[in-house]
Amino acid sequence: MTDHDNGLWVRRFHPAPAGAPRLVCLPHAGGSASFYFPVSRALSPAVEVLSIQYPGRQDRRHEPCVDTIPELARQVFRVLRPWLDQPLAIFGHSMGASLGFEVARLMEAETGRPAAHLFPSGRRAPSRRRDETVHLLDDEGLLADVKKLSGTNSAVLGDPDMLRAALPAIRNDYRAAETYEYTPGPKLTCPVTVFTGDDDPKTTVDEARAWQEHTTGPFDMHVFPGGHFFLAQHQPAILRTLSAALTRAAVG
């Protein structure tokens, strides 16, 4: 991996002092690294946020998308290797939660060191699969689902040119998320803290609680009022939880 490769994938909006806890943030389907700019700003300088930019969007729009979660996890893990000189926590929302789980598995399998903490958000546990086919719908049907979840910036949805540019990445990511199948294997050993909305059409509270089955480490879950993008309304509470957990990990 070259420095250029790392710069394409890893966006460090607010570099932190040496030794600060590191949090990798993985976007949702159709999302980009900039989604986590407010998180980086809020946690800086106590926590260094590394936000991942997937191929096929924004300044990487001319690159081919990665269309499976396992392959995307392998590529993300590869670019994160230089950052593993100190403990690394992972936050992922929606598709990013499934991706974060697979990256955490690779970290343990390839390095023998678990993630400092895994924070899945807005996604059912890997072992709780649904038969979903939104990625097979026409453009209108796909966009209807995106609008229902309110996951993409309204300015993009209202701009035909921006929308045409974003649609391939959105469809690709929906395909990756909906066709992802959990492969049984060793449980994680890191702490897992789950965030979920009580009215999320993509994840029930019981499906979110099932993340507990995927780790031998400490487990916690926070249920917030709201749908799939509950985190937009409850950012302060989520940031407090992240900050407290990362501080404990750094001290420990």
Automatic annotation (TrEMBL):
SMART domains hit by this protein: PKS_TE
Transmembrane segments: none
Domain (Thioesterase TesA-like) ranges: 24-246
Keyword annotations: Hydrolase
Gene Ontology biological process: lipid biosynthetic process
InterPro entries membership: AB_hydrolase_fold, TEII, TesA-like, Thioesterase
Keyword NADP on entry: no
Domain of life where this protein originates: Bacteria
Gene Ontology MF term list: hydrolase activity
Family: Belongs to the thioesterase family.
Protein name: Surfactin synthase thioesterase subunit
